């Protein structure tokens, strides 16, 4: 018994030592190993004065390249570009001789900052419950410690439109910069637009032929129209004498910049029927609209041009949707829209998000 007691005491003492040692190891690693605390990329400090990038080849995109040019940055913005730029005495010079200087890329649609690992549910925060959620602000859910932010930045993408998903009305999007300590630092502009997933507009099918009741698509549009009308009535009452005792409705409040035409609705629509229906709704409600997806936008080019509606093409690296179409129909769509007088950009899912401006 005495031997067993001595053994137990020794084991207990050794366990205490192990526990103490483990605690010291954990604390020391938290103090001396920043990589354990999250993203090791440290956001840059604000520039204390003007910065002049000199000696390189500048690519303005809208004009021919400028060899041995100077790019002057003041207060975080491009102040001047050219060969004969006057550089202030207090400016910091960065010599990039023999290098090329390009504008940063802009990702026009994505879930950057909302998803870390697709297979891990806890790291996916891009969709809210419910069908109509205009009050969802995507920038609040952004993870500033995401490892994808510095990776994306290293690929030349400096700005990204982060977009919510799910439901009929998903919420508002935000433009993020790829450098910052918090979501407030990352947010360059919010809200940018209200995202709506337009019903598929399937028309007459075997299932609904001969039926007099509304189709699910028609019900969704009626639900959306009713929501906009109720929001207008709400704001009319809020600004009038009936505002006393009227409860605050966050969903209707979120629709205010849409109804005042301060920001657009960004409608996900691929087919011609969807695009035409969405444009009809926007004209009826007198709101600004941008079409996202737009596979059949060329068929609606005259309508888009008449109402000056831009299109974000949902990818060029995909297969044609119809057997009768040329193999490169999605790839040539941006140029065909340009020739038709429609403003468009293309968003392509690659390893890194890439934007091709047309």
Structural class: alpha/beta
- Write down the CATH topology of the largest domain: TIM Barrel
CATH class of the largest domain: Alpha Beta
- Please state the second-level CATH architecture of the largest domain: Alpha-Beta Barrel
Helical residue percent band: 25-40%
Total beta strand runs:
17
How would you describe the overall organization of this protein?
The protein is α/β, with parallel strands linked by helices. The protein has 2 domains: 51 residues, Urease, subunit C, domain 1 (Roll), CATH 2.30.40; 243 residues, TIM Barrel (Alpha-Beta Barrel), CATH 3.20.20.140. It is 29% helix and 20% strand. The chain has 9 helices and 17 strands. The strands form 4 sheets. A 7-stranded mixed β-sheet has the order 9-12-13-14-15-16-17, with helices on one face. It has a 4-stranded mixed β-sheet with strand order 4-3-1-5, with no helix packed on it. Strand 15, helix 9 and strand 16 form a beta-alpha-beta unit. The chain is globular, with a radius of gyration of 27 Å. The termini are far apart.
């Amino acid at each position: 018994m005495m031997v067993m007691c001595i053994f137990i005491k020794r084991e207990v003492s050794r366990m205490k030592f192990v526990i103490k040692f483990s605690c010291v190891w954990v604390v020391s690693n938290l103090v001396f190993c920043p990589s354990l605390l999250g993203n090791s990329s440290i956001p840059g400090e604000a520039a204390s004065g003007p910065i002049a990038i000199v000696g390189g080849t500048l690519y303005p995109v809208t004009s021919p390249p400028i060899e041995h040019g100077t790019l002057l940055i003041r207060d975080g913005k491009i102040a001047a570009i050219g060969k004969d730029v006057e550089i202030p005495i207090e400016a910091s010079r960065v010599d990039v001789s023999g290098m090329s200087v390009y504008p940063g890329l802009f990702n026009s649609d994505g879930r950057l900052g909302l998803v870390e690992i697709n297979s891990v549910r806890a790291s996916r925060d891009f969709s809210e419950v419910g069908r109509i959620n205009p009050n969802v602000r995507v920038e609040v859910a952004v993870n500033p410690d995401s490892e994808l932010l510095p990776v994306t930045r290293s690929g030349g993408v400096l700005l990204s439109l982060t977009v919510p998903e799910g439901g009929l009305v998903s919420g508002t999007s935000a433009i993020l910069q790829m450098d910052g300590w918090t979501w407030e630092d990352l947010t360059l502009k919010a809200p940018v637009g209200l995202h709506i997933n337009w019903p598929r507009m399937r028309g007459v099918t075997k299932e609904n032929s001969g039926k007099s009741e509304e189709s699910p698509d028609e019900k969704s549009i009626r639900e959306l129209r009713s929501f906009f009308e109720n929001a207008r009535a709400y704001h009319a009452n809020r600004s009038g004498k009936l505002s006393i005792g009227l409860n605050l409705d966050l969903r209707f409040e979120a629709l205010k910049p849409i109804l005042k035409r301060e920001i657009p609705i960004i409608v996900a629509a691929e087919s011609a029927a969807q695009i035409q229906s969405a444009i009809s709704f926007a004209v009826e409600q007198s709101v600004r609209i941008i079409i996202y997806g737009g596979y059949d936008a060329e068929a609606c080019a005259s309508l888009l041009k008449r109402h000056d509606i831009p299109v974000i093409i949902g990818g060029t690296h995909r297969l044609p949707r119809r057997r009768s179409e040329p193999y490169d129909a999605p790839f040539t769509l941006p140029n065909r829209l340009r020739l038709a007088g429609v403003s468009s950009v293309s968003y392509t899912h690659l390893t890194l998000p890439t934007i091709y401006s047309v």
